Amino acid sequence: MFFSSFICVPLLLQVEKDDQIRINKFSRLNLGYDDLDEEIKALKKSVQTYKDARDEIDACMEDEGILLKIGEAFTPVDEDSVGEKLGKLIDQAEARLSEATDEIEKVKTDLDALKKASRDLWDLWVQVANLREFQRLPGKYQWQLFYPDYVDGLVL
C-alpha cells in the first residue's frame, strides 16, 4: 500500500503526571457519580413503594385486618405496628436519599472543577487530534494515524 509522504505511526501525546492524576481522579469521581445516581433512583423508588404501602394500609377496611405474607403463609398483623415499621423505613430511606443527594452534588462540583482545571489538557488533545488525518486501513492496522511531519520519533 502506498501513501505519499505519510508514515503510519500511533498517536503520541505526552501527558504530565499532574494531568494524569487529574484524569484518574475524574474517572473515579465519574464512576462514583454513576453509582450514586443509580442509588438515588433506587431510593426514590423504595420511598414511593413504602408510601404506597402505607396508603394501602390506611385504606384497608377488611374484617381480617392486615395480612402479612411470609413465605407461603399469610399472618395477621396489627395495623399500628405495620404503620410504625413503614414510617421508620420511609424515614431511613429519605435520610439516605438526602445524604446521597448531598454526596452527588459534591461529586458534581468536584467534576466541574476538574473539567475547568483540565481544560488546557483537553484543548491540547483536540488540537492534536484535529491536526491529524484518520485513515481506515485493512487488517491489523485498523484506525492508524498518518503524520506528515514525523521524524526520528518526534512529532514536529
What low-confidence regions span 5 or more consecutive residues with pLDDT below 50? 1-9, 131-156
Strand content: 15-25%
CATH topology: Helix Hairpins
Mean pLDDT: 76
Number of strands: 7
CATH class group: Mainly Alpha
Class derived from helix and strand content? alpha+beta
General shape: rod-shaped
The main pleated sheet reads as: 3 strands, antiparallel
Biggest β-sheet: strands ordered side by side in the sheet: 1-5-4
Report the total helices. Answer: 3
The percent of residues in helical segments reads 55-70%
The Rg value, from CA coordinates, equals 29 Å
Count of all domains: 1
Order of helices and strands: EHEEHHEEEE
CATH architecture designation: Orthogonal Bundle
Task: Compute the separation of the termini in Å.
Answer: 24 Å
Please sum up the structure shown.
GO terms for molecular function: unfolded protein binding. The chain has 3 helices and 7 strands.
Describe this structure in words.
- InterPro entries: PFD_beta-like, PFDN4, Prefoldin.
- It comes from Polarella glacialis.
- GO terms for molecular function: unfolded protein binding.
- This protein has a single domain (20-135), classed as Orthogonal Bundle (Helix Hairpins), CATH 1.10.287.370.
- 61% of the residues lie in helices and 15% in strands.
- It is built from 3 helices and 7 strands; from the N terminus they run E-H-E-E-H-H-E-E-E-E.
- The strands form 3 sheets. A 3-stranded antiparallel beta sheet has the order 1-5-4.
- The longest helix has 43 residues, at 17-59.
- It is rod-shaped.
- Residues 1-9 and 131-156 have low confidence and may be disordered.
